[in-house]
Write a structure and sequence with these properties.
The chain contains five helices and 13 strands. The protein has 208 residues and is of the alpha/beta class. It binds ligand PMT. The site of ligand PMT has 29 residues, from α1, α3 and β8.
Length: 208
């Protein structure tokens, strides 16, 4: 899902993530017998009832919730649309119009999946997403490397049939060994199925 970064007690900066992709992955992992924790910002859909759900609002809260549970996780999947920025010193009272516009100073939030990638144990598998409007493969490859991920799901965003809020997704899997697995546009639940199969393969080869 999204993050909500407060501007004042009634306003926030957010994004269009619905939670559909992340929750589809959680559901598929449960079907495969995993114990699943969903650390989620505000979303339009309901997380699977069999998962442990940790509700957060901001990227910093999401970061802290992830770090707390990280030591016991075998697989960490970053499908959330984490807010890259937060508002400096959000106002404690609702801001009034004053006829001269509003100026917000923004600070960078921590990069959660990069912190997970940097500190991962050899047994842990870390999967990120890359949400791109252009240069999909090049941008995703750069994120895969920079964030020390085992795999990244590169998906197109900003089109009707892929990305934020859509029922379907236009995605491919990029692996740390440089290989790319192409997929046609499909339902997010179908992509979650393919993703989990790939993750199981990677876990098995890690264990060998
Ligand atoms: O929720 P839906 O409506 O179903 O939409 C699904 C989706 C488009 C949100 C999903 O498929 C997706 O692409 N999620 C990742 C969105 C994103 O933030 O992408 P990014 O390219 O900006 O970030 C790259 C990776 O770093 C992601 O794994 C992201 O979760 C992670 N990140 C980014 C910023 C940050 N501060 N911390 C992070 O962990």
């Amino acid at each position: 899902g999204a993050n909500h970064e407060p501007i004042d007690p009634v306003r926030f900066i957010g994004n269009r993530s619905s939670g559909k992709m992340g929750y589809a992955i959680a559901y598929e992992a449960l079907l495969r017998g995993a114990t699943v924790t969903v650390i989620t910002g505000p979303a339009e859909v309901q997380p699977p009832v069999q998962s442990t759900v940790i509700q957060v609002q901001t990227a910093q809260e999401m970061h802290d919730a992830v770090m707390e549970r990280l030591p016991t996780a075998d697989v960490i999947i970053g499908a959330a649309a984490v807010s890259d920025y937060r508002v400096d010193n959000p106002a404690t009272q609702k801001q009034k119009r004053n006829g001269s516009g509003m100026h917000l100073d923004l600070t960078e939030n921590p990069d959660i999946i990069a912190a997970v990638g940097a500190g991962k144990k050899p047994s842990q598998l870390v999967v990120g997403f890359a949400a791109e409007t252009n240069d999909l493969i090049a941008n995703a490859q750069s994120k895969l490397k920079k964030k020390n991920l085992d795999m990244i799901v590169a998906n197109t965003v900003g089109t009707e049939n892929s990305g934020f809020g859509a029922e379907t997704t236009d995605a491919r899997f990029l692996l740390a060994d440089g290989s790319i697995e192409e997929h046609p546009i499909m339902k997010k639940s179908e992509l979650a199925e393919k993703l989990m199969t790939r993750i199981v393969d990677l876990l098995v080869s890690k264990a060998d």
